[in-house]
Amino acid sequence: MDLGITGKWALVGGASKGLGFGCAQALSREGVNVVLVARGAEALAQAVAALKADPQRPAAAEVLSVACDITTPEGRAQIFALRRDWDIVVTNAGGPPPGDFRDWDRDTWIQAVDANMLTPIELIKATVDGMAARGFGRIVNITSSSVKAPIDILGLSNGARSGLTGFVAGVARMQKLAAANVTINNLLPGAFDTDRLKATLAGAVKRTGQPLETIADSRRKAIPAQRFGQPPEFGATCAFLCSQHAGYITGQNVLIDGGAYPGTY
Q: What family is reported (predicted)?
């Protein structure tokens, strides 16, 4: 299927690895000009090199990068100094650490909210009006399945990402955006084979004393698909939501978890 986004410009956060890289790769393969953003310059350079060497990427599709902390005003200024107008924005920030809510002070909460709620809102605010004026825009926020089914040790993520979800539910339905072919949706990943999952499993090993493979196997068996997700399949879903074909999908929370969520709605 031709997604109809060849030549568009996409900004992808947290794109040096994991789910962000999966999204950048999928968009790049569709002929989208992709700008990868991450804090780690070395990992970012490796990601850019991998995309440029990808035989499935059309030669005309550009791959650029900005090494910065997009959660800061200075970082966002670097992004918009490179390019003001974006057709596609994929927001993605590393999840806050797990733990006991009794141990979190105000500064910890503010940091989580700033990265996982306020930064995406700032990027939406800075880009949607230009998208509407041009008659095309796609914003995809990578959040978490914990928005749908909260996880007790991920209280920081539950709270901050739920705040973003509530905001998107309103702004995505603004007529001046939706009627101008500007969509805003959230992608909710379950357990994907990423560094984040590895860190979570390592934490469980430390807490329980059980072997890593025992814990990982137990986690896999709790998923109807009996496996962890892979970043490329996540990226493919992201690319579809960014496509010309997804113009009638907005304000939605798309859960990608191998069937782990047990609810009807």
A: Belongs to the short-chain dehydrogenases/reductases (SDR) family.
